[in-house]
Amino acid sequence: LRNIEELRQAIAQQQFQLEYQPLIELETGHIFGVEALLRWMHPVRGRISPADFIPLAEETGLIVPLGAWILQTACAQAAAWSAKGLPPVTMAVNVSARQFREKGLQADVAAALASSGLPAERLELELTESAIMEDVGAATATMNALRGLGVHLAIDDFGTGYSSLSVLKTFPVRRLKIDRSFVHDIPADQDDIAITAAIISLARTLHLEVIAEGVETQAQFMMLKQMGCMAAQGFLIGRPMAAAAMAERLACDH
Ligand code: G
Ligand code: G
Ligand code: MN
Ligand code: NA
């Protein structure tokens, strides 16, 4: 049923875990970052996707303490990998719309950086296009404040949220993440190829980095590379995995 009580209990009983998915440079295959992805290890139902409980966590405000835990855990993990001598990677963390609107976000980010010792520039916050576009003025102020802490920002699910191109250039973001719905039917769908090419071109014009999400096939991989996309993420390259498996993958990457 995933009610509020169950969610509260899950936080208290530490039933949440983070998995990590590699982000690679298309040209070299080098892993430059990982995205932290939340999983609920339910004692009875097993692994529950965040898609099934983030909406409730947002409605009830539980996303705030949960989000703080995610930031702490992801930053601590990135710092722990570095301490083991693994190559430094960017740690990308999803921030939900509600979390982004809450006043405490900056403090939670600062606390996670301070307690982990992770350099701020190694943390990248993924904001959804729709969360930013809800109130562009407020969002810009929040983004500038977060940038002021030294962290980087990315726009997640880009292409799905009606960004006005004129405001996009004023946002202090460094990366666009091409939504996987556009990548899914490459190379068969000419419209999706055109949209993806347009986003790649837009990113280049605005001096933003760009990454294609949801890369599942060799054909998508090759086509994106040919189109000049800088980076990719998806099941073809690596599924979200536990921290230990990710550490092994990073160890093989230098
Ligand atoms: O990993 P998966 O495909 O199950 O994720 C489903 C959705 O949950 C995606 O939209 C993803 O962005 C979101 N999600 C995954 N991890 C987190 C997280 O740590 N915080 C937030 N706010 N959303 C997450
Ligand atoms: O909304 P966001 O982009 O943060 O969602 C990330 C989610 O996408 C993760 O939960 C992850 O499980 C999922 N994901 C990552 N790579 C792929 C992929 O290649 N195919 C599909 N279908 N989902 C993916
Ligand atoms: Mn994401
Ligand atoms: Na996305």
Description of the molecule:
Keywords: Kinase, Transferase. It comes from Xaviernesmea rhizosphaerae. One of its GO terms (molecular function) is kinase activity. This is Histidine kinase. The protein has 254 residues and is of the alpha/beta class. The chain has a single domain, classed as EAL domain (TIM Barrel, Alpha-Beta Barrel). Helix content is 45%, strand content 21%. It contains 12 helices and 9 strands. It has helices at 4-12, 54-60, 63-83, 97-101, 105-116, 129-133, 136-148, 165-168, 180-183, 190-205, 218-226, 243-251, and strands spanning 16-25, 31-42, 46-48, 90-95, 123-128, 152-158, 175-178, 209-212, 231-232. It has an 8-stranded mixed barrel, surrounded by 5 helices. β2 and β3 (46-48) form a beta hairpin. α3 packs parallel to α5 (105-116). The longest helix has 21 residues, at 63-83. The protein is globular, with a radius of gyration of 18 Å. The model has no long low-confidence stretch (mean pLDDT 95). The chain binds guanosine-5'-monophosphate (2 copies), manganese (II) ion (MN) and sodium ion. The site of manganese (II) ion has 4 residues, from loops.
